[in-house]
UniProtKB/TrEMBL annotation:
Coiled-coil positions: none
InterPro entries found in the cross-reference section: GlpE_sulfurtransferase, Rhodanese-like_dom, Rhodanese-like_dom_sf
Segments forming domain Rhodanese: 15-99
Pfam families for this protein: Rhodanese (PF00581)
Superkingdom: Bacteria
Protein name: Rhodanese-like domain-containing protein
PANTHER family noted in UniProt: FAD-DEPENDENT OXIDOREDUCTASE (PTHR43031), PYRIDINE NUCLEOTIDE-DISULPHIDE OXIDOREDUCTASE (PTHR43031:SF1)
Length: 99
């Protein structure tokens, strides 16, 4: 699992539309403010494993509000065998600050 800066996140998604971006905040947080990506809350992430790409090398970028939960989610997905998992440093706050 690695952390990436918002600038790297923006560059990567700009150049590769196949990247899966997951927001691991709670549903109510997502409903209040989101950037239009998939929402799989951290506590429910194991239930969504079957919705993730079967290709364990598929790139996945995760964010939450500030970066703590996304690091936990990235670690979990890495433990499940996913090899290209990143967490956005600073989370949604950093994304919105750098928009």
């Amino acid at each position: 699992m690695k952390e990436i800066e918002v600038t790297e996140y923006k560059e990567r998604v700009k150049n590769d539309s196949s990247i899966l971006i997951i927001d691991v905040r709670e549903c109510w947080e997502y409903d209040e403010n989101n950037i239009g990506v998939t929402n799989y809350p951290l506590g429910e992430l194991p239930q969504y494993l079957n919705k993730l790409p079967s290709n364990k090398d598929h790139e996945i970028i995760i964010h939450c509000e500030s970066g703590r939960r996304s690091r936990q989610a990235a670690k979990y997905l890495t433990q499940q065998g996913y090899t290209k998992v990143s967490s956005i440093k600073g989370g949604l706050k950093a994304i919105l600050l750098n928009s």
